[in-house]
């Protein structure tokens, strides 16, 4: 039986000790996960089994039902009937008033004693809601319609003027106004017509957005509530083109939609969504594409918070088993790019603001990292042995 021989040279014993420690470390690393950027494909699949998020395998049906991005909406901003544009006169309104008489020689007749009338332009309603006219005196007009004010003027002239008549028109209404501000051509107050002005028409009248519609957010503040949507969604979705109300504040801001791309791709970064219809395949290509030597073609994942309503409309069942955050239900879409048909889905599956795409490493990459580490370790052992010898 052969017994192990212990080197008498202490330096040789130290070299063997170092070699044993290093080989032991490499063996330990081989038993656990090596460092990598983000989760592996197996880790994502295991997480889905715990129902910490919803995993959806993308196919033709999913692309057709969920491939279009979620629509941002302001349609849920409830309407207040009392705040609709009103023909009632308010404080600060400017009126144009014409008083006529049927006979000649009256109080409001034209020159040379003929019949006619007198115009009173730029009559401003005071803070007390009153106006003052010659021979009429001070009358309360706030809250009354032009027709009601005409009747009030005629009644005040009974016995003073000859068969008087009055015509009242609101030249400028300070009450029927909304404010449009932000990245528009002409920010400021916007006069609302009695027929009702839609949001898109008001923005166009204010000079439109200074930036592309899909890069512009529109926030509407109404009383103590607010809602926000992309300008492109307001133009394309009729339900979003809501009528404005008095005292609405409309704020346009330049906020380009963005997505994050990480993993085995050419360059990990946060990128702009360049067009209103920007696909997952375009997004990966913008970063130089997936890296052939690293990427797992079956491990392309899109992370997004989806609404229960949208998922339910797509026929996804058992949604109550998953957590829901303020942003929505955590959802992961898996694209198995090793299947040729998935390439078509990736061309049609569109991104939305806040999406995150992750391309996992292939299993061979993890093996390659271990082999590289092993080679580096053996090299270190050999160098250490050379020095000790």
From TrEMBL:
Every copy of the SLBB domain together lies at 261-359
The Polysaccharide export protein N-terminal domain extends over: 85-170
Q: Which InterPro entries match?
A: Poly_export (IPR049712), Poly_export_N (IPR003715), SLBB_dom (IPR054765), Soluble_ligand-bd (IPR019554)
Residue runs in coiled coils: none
Tell me which positions the record assigns to the signal sequence.
Answer: 1-33
Q: Where in the cell is it found?
A: Cell outer membrane
Q: Which keywords annotate this record? A: Cell outer membrane, Ion transport, Lipoprotein, Membrane, Palmitate, Polysaccharide transport, Porin, Signal, Sugar transport, Transmembrane, Transmembrane beta strand, Transport
| Principal location class | membrane
Does Cell membrane count among this protein's keywords?
no
Q: Which Gene3D superfamilies match?
A: Outer membrane lipoprotein wza domain like, wza like domain
**Which residue intervals define the domain Soluble ligand binding in the entry?**
180-223
Which PANTHER family does the annotation name?
Answer: POLYSACCHARIDE EXPORT PROTEIN GFCE-RELATED (PTHR33619:SF3)
Q: Which protein family is named in the record? A: Belongs to the BexD/CtrA/VexA family.
Protein name as it appears in the record: Polysaccharide biosynthesis/export family protein
Q: Record the organism.
A: Fuscovulum ytuae
Q: What is the lineage of its organism?
A: Bacteria, Pseudomonadati, Pseudomonadota, Alphaproteobacteria, Rhodobacterales
